[in-house]
Amino acid sequence: MNTPTKTVTENAQKLEAAYASVSDLYRGKTDDLYAACREMRKTTRVYEGDFIAKFLGVPTNAGLQTRPTYAVFQYQDVMNVLKDANTFTSGFILEGMGKVWDGLMILGMDGEAHRKVRALLQPAFMPENVNKWRPKIDRVAREDFIMPLLPDKKADLMEMGLNFPVRAMYALVGFPEDNPDQYNQYAVWALSMLAANQLDKAKAEEGRRVAAIAVKSLYDALMEQVQRRRAEGATGDDLITRLMNAEYEGHKLDDHEVATFARSLLPAAGETTTRTFSAAMTFLLTIPGLLDRVRNDRNLVPKLIDEAVRFEPSSTFKVRETSTDVQIGDVTIPKGSFVQCMVASANRDESAFENPDVFDIDRRQKPSFGFGFGPHMCIGQFVAKLELNCAINGILDLMPNVRLDPEQPAPKIEGAHLRGAKSVHVIWD
Questions:
Q1: pTM here?
Q2: What was the pLDDT predicted at 299?
Q3: Would 85 disulfide with which of 94, 123, 247, 375, CB 3.0-4.6 Å?
Q4: Can you give the residue ranges of every domain in the chain?
């Protein structure tokens, strides 16, 4: 992959390598994730054991912590677990990967502390505020990423698929726009923060070391911008400024909290959007008739994105910990156990979705779990959807008759977790 100008910089290469490293970490060992989940839905409502380690072979955000572990697969069970944050908690994340995050990590908060922080952060990410960023995101997608590709009449769309969400999100956060390549370094740090998640104990120690360096580096970069905004009077529409001005029940975030919470949002800001982009473009270009429909009716783009999130969620599972003994079906799950919610399974549950293994943008809208569910639902989902919308519309507008390149391998979505296609080769007229 290249930067938009086709000048391969050191930071761009580092970003590519960091993204590939995360993909490799979560590639796993299952040949068919969905077949494994389908069998479980039919035969085993609650699996007693570490399903993710045994069948997928990838780490979770629990790190190396060992507790009684169970897995659920059915739509209603996954929904019930994710929406009940009192019974199924997330604080264990701070004991695992969160140890290197200074403890302030919204994913690992529970109860009243989580409610208050979420209430402070949420307004900045609601559609009415996110949509104010549309002109900037649209301009970045078209001018900085799509238009430089046009003269060649062919491209791997993942040339922009990795770099565009990074470029857009880090500008929205509030980093200076005069050196966008520096965003690649920030994104490398953000991805390296995931290095603490390892199944191999030997690798875990080195992973924690790398993650700790990345956590500190990204914090320092963010704190510099927070202090600059504070000195300038905290005016503007970037995320840092919005967080500085946010107030809930008389509480405002201090500089440390602004920098720390902004940092905790960044690991997913680029790469999960990248993976969803790869999936959406794969389906758009491979399903007969779909491209023409969407090109001619852009109101279908949001439906394309929503169905891609259901059909191929980049995050295939979520993990919670029980705060009390709980009964699911005929299985009693003891207090202090991990419960693995198999999102990839629930999103294709026959009891919830008609013809669930068919990609269908016309299906009746129903909650799926690609962005999570309940109190911990992804706070940045509307930003991700807006970035994807701008990128897809830009491609359809600027690449006439875009289609798969017959001389290149077809895109293939893979991975036990953090799924996506490595490449999406296209040509246009």
A1: 0.91
A2: 97
A3: 375
A4: 10-427
Cα(20)–Cα(366) distance, rounded to whole angstroms?
33
Q: Judge whether residue 351 has pLDDT over 90.
A: yes
Q: What confidence tens digit (pLDDT) does each residue in 22-69 have?
A: 888 889 987 789 999 999 999 999 999 999 999 999 988 766 668 999
Burial of 174-192, coded b for 16+ CB within 10 Å and e otherwise, reads: bbeeeebbebbbbbbbbbb
The single residue listed with the structure tokens 């045994």 is 54
3-state secondary structure of 232: helix
Judge whether 81 and 88 are in contact, CB under 8 Å.
Answer: yes
pLDDT for res 107: 79
CA atoms within 13 A on the CB side of 195: 24
Q: How far is CA 331 from the centre of its chain?
A: 32
3-state DSSP of 116-168: HHHHHHHHHHCHHHHHHHHHHHHHHHHHHHHHHHHHHCEEECHHHHHHHHHHH
Describe the crossing of helices 267-286 and 255-265 by its angle, rounded to 10 degrees: 30
Structure tokens, 1: 């992959």
Q: Is the pLDDT of residue 3 over 70?
A: no
Identify the DSSP state of 114: H
Q: Which of 81, 78, 80 is nearest to 342 (CA)?
A: 78
- In this predicted structure, the answer to whether residue 96 has a pLDDT above a threshold of 70 is no
The number of residues in the chain equals: 429
**DSSP track, 243-297:** HHH-EETTEE--HHHHHHHHHHHSHHHHHHHHHHHHHHHHHHHHSTTHHHHHHH-
Instruction: List all residues 6 or more positions away from 349 whose beta carbon is below 8 Å from its beta carbon.
Output: 41, 73, 74, 75, 356
CA distance 295 to 284: 10
CATH topology of domain 10-427: Cytochrome p450 (1.10.630)
186 or 158, greater pLDDT: 158
* CA atoms of 220 and 159, how far apart (whole Å): 29
Tens of pLDDT, residues 185-243: 888 888 887 666 666 676 767 777 887 888 889 899 999 999 999 999 888 888 899 88
Say how far apart CA 319 and CA 340 lie, in whole Å. 5
